[in-house]
Amino acid sequence: MACEGDQAGFSDRRERTRFGAGVVHRLPLPPERLPAVSARDLRRAFEAAREVAREGGAQPVRLFSCGRGEAAVLLFVDDPSASAWIGGVERLFGLSSPYALALCFRVLALIERLARPEARALFPRRPLDCDALPARLLHAAAIAPLDGNGQFRESDLPVG
């Protein structure tokens, strides 16, 4: 398991929030300060996320509290598919380190980008499949900076 970095200040626990019961992940830094990851680990995380999504079953609602104090950003995930993808990353890497959370946010951002109409040319005859992803796209997703919402900027990860 490739979990690198200082884990101080990271926590995850089930609790009731104003959004209902779920898992709250607290990280002391904003998404844009999360590290780059290896393309190999991103591929493994993507595959694990797809596997959990295929298995089905209920996944908890997730709340990510990124940063500290007034500057903290809250990212709320209640979409069942996205919750399953998060569960897949968590199963393989955990979610208690900057590296694992970077993988998680990059998987979510990559899937969001690949769901766009302009990306359909990448998968003309088969469903979203990590093996069909161009290596250059996977590499770019592994190293592209994340924005404050844990997404890729348009210019950093074009898929069309």
Please tell me about this protein's structure.
By secondary structure, this protein is α+β, with helices and mostly antiparallel strands. It has one domain (11-150). The protein is built from four helices and four strands, in the order ββαββααα. The chain has helices at 39-55, 80-93, 98-114, 135-143; strands at 11-17, 20-27, 62-66, 73-77. Strands 1-2-3-4 form a four-stranded mixed sheet. A hairpin with a 6-residue loop joins strand 3 (62-66) and strand 4. Helix 1 (39-55) crosses helix 3 (98-114). The longest helix is centred in the N-terminal third of the chain and has 17 residues, at 39-55.
Give descriptors for this structure.
160 residues, alpha+beta, four-stranded mixed β-sheet, 4 helices, 16% strand, globular, disordered N terminus
Ordered list of secondary-structure elements with their pairings:
Blueprint (H helix, E strand, L loop, with lengths): L10 E7 L2 E8 L11 H17 L6 E5 L6 E5 L2 H14 L4 H17 L20 H9 L17
Parallel strand pairs: 2-3
Antiparallel strand pairs: 1-2, 3-4
Helix pairs in contact: 1-2, 1-3, 2-3
